[in-house]
Amino acid sequence: MNRILILPNLTKAAAIELADTIIPLFEAHGFELVLEKVTAQGLNRPLLGKEEEKLWDGIDMVLVLGGDGSILNAARRIYPCQIPILGVNLGQLGFLTRIESNKIEKAVEDLRCGKYQLEKRSMLRACVKNGTDGLLEIVALNDLIVTAKSPARMIRLDLWADNELFATYPADGLIVATATGSTAYSLSAGGPILDPRLEAILVTPICAHSLYARPVVFNPEARLKIILHQNNVEVSLTADGQTGTTLQPGAEICFEQAPYITQLIRFEGQGLFEALKSRLKEGRI
Known about the structure:
Elements: E1 3-8, H1 13-28, E2 32-36, H2 37-42, E3 49-50, E4 61-66, H3 68-78, E5 85-89, E6 99-100, H4 104-113, E7 116-121, E8 124-129, E9 135-140, E10 143-148, E11 155-161, E12 164-171, E13 173-177, H5 185-188, E14 201-206, E15 216-218, E16 224-228, E17 235-239, E18 243-247, E19 252-257, E20 262-267, H6 274-282
Parallel strand pairs: 1-2, 1-4, 2-3, 4-5, 5-6
Antiparallel strand pairs: 7-20, 8-9, 8-19, 10-13, 10-17, 11-12, 11-16, 13-14, 14-15, 16-19, 17-18
């Protein structure tokens, strides 16, 4: 890996400061660095800046400075290029970010020596048929969530699996998640924890008004569809809790495992479940 794109979370002063600090470190180890144009100007390094259309050309790795949310955003931006991502944790949970800011020097040495592994994480793709708006495609690394935009308002949703009606849910919404996303919103809604290497599609109801509504794990080849009933409530589809669209009554959303993956860099000695175990013990999950 020689050509690295550095993506700091521009809403965090610590991420911008860290980017300025580590650039000389990576350059000293022979890496070629690239920044978004706005970041390069802010750091007074205009020669490293690239426009969006040329940002990904020849990139071998993306270094994300922020938290798990920054990783999720980067994964969607990178799709479908499958460029490996390394996250430096400046956030809270750190399930996806792999190193702390005080351990970057060792990480740079390990990258140069090839002492790392690539974790393959499946993604989700949704195709939205939304009234007269036509078709919209959305991808996510964690989850795609259909929910009422107003709090405490119930909606009705039909879930179809491989052209068969699976269930009708009177609920606050439905979470469609990857194995990676099983430790996110789905876990808070009572869903199971899945091995993040698992290829599967997890559907978890949100506050379903039913004694029988339970999370369900589907195989990765399943073709799922959610049909929105004529609710007098505004409903939205959200990707990774960050971006999305408003759904019209009768909207249909088809879900499937995306054809491309996210690759996360993990160094030797970093256990796959290390972060999960520590968060469970600390009560931070």
